[in-house]
């Protein structure tokens, strides 16, 4: 292993980073800014940039193998989730990597601060002129023409050739903020004029309540007992969850648990003001359905503030790294925000996905709404030549949740036309869904040929009702649509199942997908509807898995029984297992 001095001697003098004597190699580049962004000229030389360096990890493949070992029913390690320390051993950079990168930065006069528990993410702050020299870059100001959002980015950056195996990426450099976020669509609204009933007959095609959800998915009255069973709801974009609205919602729609509340956790100087006028459609939707469907499983609202330093990820990476640093994790996290996959560079998508894999290995179920734009992405938009996958749904280590709608008052469901679904351009199809997706592709034949990556990770994985949901905003009843409802509804059911598992002396489900795809009969198969977009009818919902509703909507009792059957009584000591073949991340 080379010493710091030997490593350092191989590097060029950073004071002359743009000279011909410096062996620099382009690490990431884009040909042009995303649609809508326009360059306004060079960034001021003294503007300070907050950047992050992702160091190469010591054993990322071993972490993925371990994740599948503890998440696949039938494995000897199923349910034996890794400890915080075990995960950090996989994620930590080698001493050679740490020494080489620190020597480079020290020579440039740049201080680096570790911001992840494993030490694989470093934070640096430096002015634009120094960053231009250090990375052989040209930072400029870019403004989004429609939203006015302004950011400083470069079209390419370089690192010393000797560091190409030690640095995975520097961020944010070539990644631009997404101009949109994943939010519900308001369909109708009205004043709160009546009290709802918990009777299943409350289901209607014009208004869906928690009682309707319980009727649809066969969720019986349950009293949760495991206080260490935790459910978390993420909040971004200045979306605030209102306690008074939650109480009004529970009194009207779930009186058996009225008085249930949530605790607040903040990151990046996040807040959660309780003025009724500041109540968020998104935050209230997530909180009210996560708590009501989970029957009051202890819930935390994690509010990410505006002072994030993860660039275009808007706090998603900050939240994941914060959770990795916690000694105890919530068993379930639901998120109703996301991106179009094309908005993120491939390297960054892979790094964020691997952070989610680390959380999954520790026993956390991560659920994301698939998006509300059909095959056109996060939200309905004009497409270019191909369909638009969404992120993080394309990550193989999260569970993507699509949406359905009612077709009758008797509980029949069809695919919601806005339910985003399709195939990732960044990630290969994981083995747990290979057979199901192969069958679907065979069924659709040449439909949409050339418009999607037929070898990519397919999503959504599952679905739940996502249209005409009743919520309370500032004391008033609103009716909304979106996969923003579907994800917390499914998360609430997983939290209930975890309660039963823990009560039986077993482990929580953790990373869900291998278990879900082994139990397709625990779902109501949705076989009608499609998700149009990009001047097409999109993907059709068919028998079995499909790219609109995934495996379908849950039969709670069947899913709970399958979970209890698959779970093992925890082994008293860590056991050695043979690793499974890992999924290849990059297409």
TrEMBL record:
Its main location: secreted. GO terms for molecular function: metal ion binding; serine-type endopeptidase activity; tripeptidyl-peptidase activity. Binds 1 Ca(2+) ion per subunit. SUPFAM superfamilies: Protease propeptides/inhibitors, Subtilisin-like. Its EC number is 3.4.14.10. Residues 207-566 form the Peptidase S53 domain. Its cofactor is Ca(2+). Keywords: Calcium, Hydrolase, Metal-binding, Protease, Serine protease, Signal, Zymogen. It catalyses: Release of an N-terminal tripeptide from a polypeptide. It is found in: Secreted, Extracellular space. GO terms for biological process: proteolysis. Ca(2+) binds at residues 525-526, 544, 546. The active site is at residues 282, 286, 484. Residues 1-17 form the signal peptide. Secreted tripeptidyl-peptidase which degrades proteins at acidic pHs and is involved in virulence. This is tripeptidyl-peptidase II. It comes from Phanerochaete carnosa (strain HHB-10118-sp).
